Amino acid sequence: MSPYQHLTISEREKILVGIAEEKSIREMAEELGRAPSTVSREIQRNTVDSTYSANQAQQNYTCKRKACHREPLLSYLPIKQKVQHLLLHHQWSPEQISKRLKLEGAPIQISYITIYRGIYAGQLEDRKLINGQRGIARKLRHRGKTRHTKGYQETRGKIKISHSIHDRPKEADERHCIGHWEADTVLGKTGLPCLITLTDRYSRYLLSEQIPRKNASFVTPKLIAMFQQLPKHKVKTVTPDRGKEFAKHADVSAMLDGLPFYFADPHAPWQRGTNENTNGLLREYFPKNEDIANYSDQEIRQSIDELNKRPRKCLGWKTPYEVFFDIVLHLT
């Protein structure tokens, strides 16, 4: 890094005084602790009609200094529009945008740090696309989440489980292959329709369907139907939580050639982190306390497809869809 420092307004005023006192270039340079060539260039550049102005010299320096910087990447309309489109219409994170563009070798390249800076600097705001005090920053995933207080006791009814998660095969724990699923439900308004979700641990591929209520009588046939639509080699185990909606898991196993269920420990959502994280992503499309019955089956399928075609860091910026079906897509 160069140790050179630009002349300050104070130094320019001393040069002006030196010129008035008819001092030589070397005398002025010695007083300032600068090279004679620096003082000489300063006088030549900023002397107009045989008059040197310290104030005008400082203004000229400020203008030139601003002009010497590269324009921010987000000031270029094609880059700005591309980032806005992926961020607002597809709910991609800045890091997903940056890494996927790089993976595909797109002509537009931008770092996720630059995108974050642009968000908080207001460079991506467009009132035609989004409203609100914090604007586009509200579209970022990181929001405060409520947690159970210390000593919280589970009040839901207990169900009889077939296997503990600690007995689950090693290949499922270590995500060696496709076919080991995690199951849960995503609620809308209490007592009204909800979503049942299945997430593959290896590919993060998501299946989701609407059911009338969070009840075992509705969950059981829906689980059977969702698994029957998949090839048998892609259905090996299921890991749900201990909610009463999975109380009839034995009926599902009986209909699916003994498909084993491995239940997570009570109060241990991290043991089903893949599904919990995916449910959090679903909340971008289906907010809490909003009636899911307001969404058509087509809208739900479209939202699921968006998630399955969103690049993931844990997959090397491939999408769950690409990994699950072993194909390559062009998304940008």
Automatic annotation (TrEMBL):
PROSITE patterns from the UniProt entry: INTEGRASE (PS50994), TRANSPOSASE_IS30 (PS01043)
Pfam families referenced in this protein's UniProt entry, alphabetically: HTH_38, rve
Keyword check for DNA-binding: yes
Keyword DNA-binding: yes
Sorted UniProt keywords: DNA recombination, DNA-binding, Transposition
Domain Integrase catalytic: 165-328
Family that this chain belongs to: Belongs to the transposase IS30 family.
Purpose of the protein: Required for the transposition of the insertion element.
Protein name from the UniProt record: IS30 family transposase
